[in-house]
Design goal:
- The chain is of the alpha+beta class.
- It has a domain of about 90 residues: 3-Layer(aba) Sandwich (GIY-YIG endonuclease).
- The chain is about 30% helix and about 15% strand.
- The strands form two sheets. Strands 1-2-3 form a three-stranded antiparallel β-sheet, with no helix packed on it.
- The chain starts with 8 loop residues before the first strand and ends in a 25-residue tail after the last helix.
- It holds the Pfam family GIY-YIG.
- It comes from Sphingomonas horti.
- Belongs to the UPF0213 family.
- InterPro entries: GIY-YIG_endonuc (IPR000305), GIY-YIG_endonuc_sf (IPR035901), UPF0213_domain (IPR050190).
Length: about 160
């Protein structure tokens, strides 16, 4: 391969593989085409928006109550992972402690960046994690509701310390 050769597939700023031009591109999208999409089976722009949201690497913190037990995790599908936490699909720390309330998350361009950030946050002191959450979510509101999840019932001990 010569040094000047460039692949027709390139990575967008969101990390998804995209291809310029071609028969599958839609008018007004700048010639951007998803390489795995069949041109005759175009589901429309909404489908790809949701697919991008669901496949974005993110670091997140879930808790059981206000100032309660915290769990820091990383995923490439935040809505799917929150669904798993809420339904108890995993045995382990979050199921044992009832951590179901999403109180903080941060989106990253690559999974490698997200993993590094998660490992750093896991080493933080508890008070630092509280400060991180309260900087963007001072009321510790369940952010999963923004993804369309039902509100969780209030738990005892949820009053502020």
């Amino acid at each position: 391969m010569s040094r000047g050769w460039r692949s027709p597939i390139r990575r967008s700023s969101r990390g998804c593989c995209r291809r310029r031009g071609g028969p599958g591109s839609r008018p007004g999208d700048g010639g951007v085409r998803h390489p795995s999409r069949h041109p005759g089976l175009d589901p429309g722009p909404t489908f790809f928006f949701l697919a991008d949201v669901e496949r974005t690497p993110a670091v997140y913190i879930v808790t059981n109550t206000l100032h309660g037990t915290l769990y820091t995790g990383v995923t490439s599908n935040l809505p799917g992972r929150i669904y798993q936490h809420r339904n108890g699909s995993f045995r382990g720390f979050t199921a044992e402690h009832g951590c179901k309330r999403l109180v903080w998350f941060e989106v990253h361009h690559s999974m490698e960046e997200a993993i590094v950030r998660e490992k750093r946050i896991k080493r933080w002191l508890r008070d630092w994690k509280y400060a991180l959450i309260e900087a963007e979510n001072p009321s510790w509101r369940d952010l999963a509701e923004d993804f369309g999840f039902e509100p969780l019932l209030r738990t005892p001990g949820a009053e502020k310390r």
